[in-house]
Design goal:
This protein has 364 residues and is mostly helical. 81% of the residues lie in helices and 0% in strands. The protein has a single domain, classed as Up-down Bundle (Rhopdopsin 7-helix transmembrane proteins), CATH 1.20.1070.10. One of its GO terms (molecular function) is G protein-coupled receptor activity. InterPro entries: GPCR_Rhodpsn_7TM, Put_GPCR_Chromadorea.
Length: 364
């Protein structure tokens, strides 16, 4: 058998994997597209994405490190508003960590063709739990804001910290109930295990189910946030009409924070939905260098671009979300400012000590 790519203008090292993929009339185009896929995966899906997720992980850990001590010093009423803030932060840390492990460690050093089903299953399920619990945390924060503004008596007298703890735990339990079966089947599309899910029949169905569930989760979150945003805007308008400027100013900051969250969720939903829609019906193999994938390399280019952009947007949102919380929350902002000031003092002392050592070492 001759070289399948002998007539191609450009040649690539990956050609050796596809010499037997002769069921095509355009091998040169496909090998070029496949080389583009490999390059995109390296640049976008590894270097850029891994850097951003690592940064997101560090920022969210720092944010949690600030929030937890502040939480225990808060009054009983104030704690009610921060339970889902901390819950959201924990979900963000988990999301950044699992995506970092999945994309930057497992895919690279433990590829599906040589790895254990359970190794991938644990990480994928944890990633799903992070995603759905994060959505639930956004919903919880919005609902508490709605109750606190429009039903302050109920919020103050009837809604206890224990009730909100129960809601937060229920959010995680619901995320687990959704994530475990879905993650088990998602893993089966990558690696054979207790569940058999081959690429031609089972995998497209799993992709469709995942798309529907993710779409419902995003839709519910967006609709609830829009409803609360509209109610809050109307309440601010009413407060201004009766001359309650202090109240309207406080609520204005809350509305900006909610508006940022809503914008972020909409952007993420689009970034998540577009590649997911491309994946519907895709009969690709988990192992990249197969003939089945080679024959649809042109389609894989589009999917790789969109999935990489999705990951980058997710990472950026996970970075900006705690930063937005710092900007819109005076207590957290004061704590961050205190840390910055202390760092400047330590840095000045360090420079002073370095200058002093250099002056001592100068010849007399």
């Amino acid at each position: 058998m001759g070289d399948l790519f002998s007539n191609c203008t450009d040649h690539y090292p990956i050609e050796k994997y596809f010499q037997n993929c002769t069921n095509t009339s355009r091998p040169c185009e496909l090998i070029h597209d496949f080389a583009v896929v490999a390059q995109l995966l390296t640049i976008l899906d590894f270097y850029i994405t891994c850097t951003l997720f690592l940064l997101a992980l560090i920022i969210n850990i720092y944010f949690l490190w600030i929030c937890v001590p502040l939480y225990w010093k808060m009054s009983y009423e104030t704690r009610k508003r921060y339970i889902f803030v901390i819950s959201r932060c924990v979900s963000s840390i988990s999301a950044a960590l699992t995506l970092l492990i999945l994309r930057c460690i497992l895919y690279v050093y433990f590829p599906p063709e040589t790895s254990s089903y359970w190794l991938y299953a644990v990480v994928i399920i944890a990633d799903n739990i992070s995603f759905y619990s994060l959505q639930g945390s956004y919903i919880g924060m919005a609902i508490l804001l709605y109750i606190g503004v429009l039903h302050p008596v109920y919020f103050s007298r009837r809604l206890t910290v224990r009730n909100i703890y129960i809601l937060a735990v229920s959010n995680v339990i619901l995320a687990i109930l959704i994530s475990v079966p879905l993650g088990a089947f998602q893993t089966a599309t990558y690696i054979p295990g207790p569940i058999q899910c081959e690429s031609h029949h089972c995998a497209p169905v799993v992709g469709l189910i995942n798309f529907v569930i993710v779409s419902l989760a995003f839709s519910a979150t967006i609709l609830i946030l829009i409803f609360v945003f509209i109610c809050l805007s109307f309440h601010i308008h009413q407060s201004k009409k009766i001359g309650s400027y202090t109240s309207s100013q406080t609520l204005h900051h809350a509305r900006i924070r909610l508006g940022w969250t809503l914008t972020a969720i909409i952007v993420i939903s689009l970034a998540e939905g577009i590649p997911s829609s491309f994946l519907i019906g895709l009969k690709a193999d988990s192992v990249l260098n197969t003939c089945n994938n080679f024959y649809q390399a042109d389609r894989l280019v589009q999917i790789t671009v969109f999935t990489s952009i999705d990951s980058i947007i997710w990472a950026i949102v996970l970075i900006l979300d705690p930063l937005a919380s710092v900007i819109f929350d005076h207590s957290i902002m004061n704590k961050v400012t205190h840390h910055i000031n202390r760092s400047q003092v330590y840095y000045a002392k360090f420079l002073e000590s370095m200058t002093s050592n250099e002056s001592k070492n100068l010849p007399e």
